[in-house]
Amino acid sequence: MPDPGRPAPRGLRAVVRRLRPAPAQPRAKAATDYGFVVVVAPGRSGSTLIQGMLNEIPGTLVRGENNLYLYGIYQAYRDFLAFQELHRSNRHRQLISPFYGLMELRKGMWVRFVRNLFVTGALGAESSEQVQRLGFKEVLWHRVTADDTEGFFGFLDAALPGVRYILNTRDPEVVVGSGFWTGQDREKAIAKVERVHDIQAFLRATRPDRVYETRYEVVTGEDVAARDAQLSGLIEFVTGEPASRDVLTSVAAALDTGYGPHPFGESRNDGLGATPPPSEA
How many domains does the chain have? Predict the structure, then answer.
């Protein structure tokens, strides 16, 4: 019987080391480990400023506009499901069928694909360890048709579980008189802005616990108490925790940074031609 007080032979020690459990490695973040936040706003409403403020909240990474590519994926998903339904009875399990294997692509596969695609693209080169919440802001919501609204946002909810929506607004008369809207037919521009407002109303009515409203005139206004109240509410909505003074100060400091294609330029002053002070950018 081996003497327990003597060291094990060299060869035996190597075997023991191989058999010893390896130190536990931290689990890599899954796509479902993130919180999600999306800014829904018409163009020229100050959505880039809101994007900048959100990125001042620790653990939050909100990307800019992406041509609303998720809507294009939803349309492909919608049309594919309709195609499946149309040919459901056409012997899709038989090798000789022109629709062989049609039903193998399922709803859940689309959802997982979109979730992983969004998370990977939104993270980019950022370390996942530092990010708890991911999101984006977009101004092309007018592209979503009335017939697609319920289906698209249901799809978005499934792909980005628990997604929270920030509804940013600004005086529509000012919006359509600013920036790229001035190069469009006024009636068409107003219709697009109103379409975004319709979507915002839909989200308020259907997801009241997952929407928060920011108003450009309040966020950039001279009433500091009203501004801080709105920004504190934004921070708590995103993080689930009361806003600390330090985080509120960081978020409010975005007003002095300048966000958008022409920070503090003429288009930031409602097209009147004068350069506004930083607090109004």
Answer: 1
pLDDT of residue 88: 85
Which pairing describes strands 60-63 and 133-138: parallel, antiparallel, or unpaired? parallel
**What residues contact residue 97 under an 8 Å CB cut-off, 6+ apart?**
90, 91
Residue 195 falls within a domain, yes or no?
Answer: yes
Residue-wise DSSP of 30-54: PGGGSEEEEEE--TTSSHHHHHHHH
For residue 118, give both structure tokens.
Answer: 């969004």
Cα-based angle 131, 135, 140 (whole degrees, multiple of 5): 160
Q: How much is the pLDDT for 8?
A: 55
User: 91 lies in a domain?
Assistant: no
Q: 149-180: per-residue pLDDT in tens?
A: 999 999 999 999 999 999 999 999 999 988 77
State residue 184's pLDDT score. 87
Does 13 map to a domain? no
Q: What is the dihedral of CA 165, 169, 196, 44, to 10 degrees?
A: -110
Residue 70 located in a structural domain: yes
With CA atoms as reference, report the closest residue to 206 among 150, 135, 141: 150
Tens of pLDDT, residue by residue over 38-62, are 999 999 999 999 999 999 999 999 9
Q: What is the DSSP string of 103-120?
A: GGS-HHHHHHHHHHHHHH
The Cα 263–Cα 183 span in angstroms is 19
Provide the residue range defining the domain that includes 150: 32-75+106-262
CATH code of the domain in which 244 resides: 3.40.50.300
State the first-to-last Cα distance of the chain, in angstroms, to the nearest integer: 83
Please give the angle made by the CA atoms of 129, 133 and 135, to the nearest 5 degrees: 125
Strand locations in the chain, DSSP E? 35-40, 60-63, 133-138, 164-169, 211-215
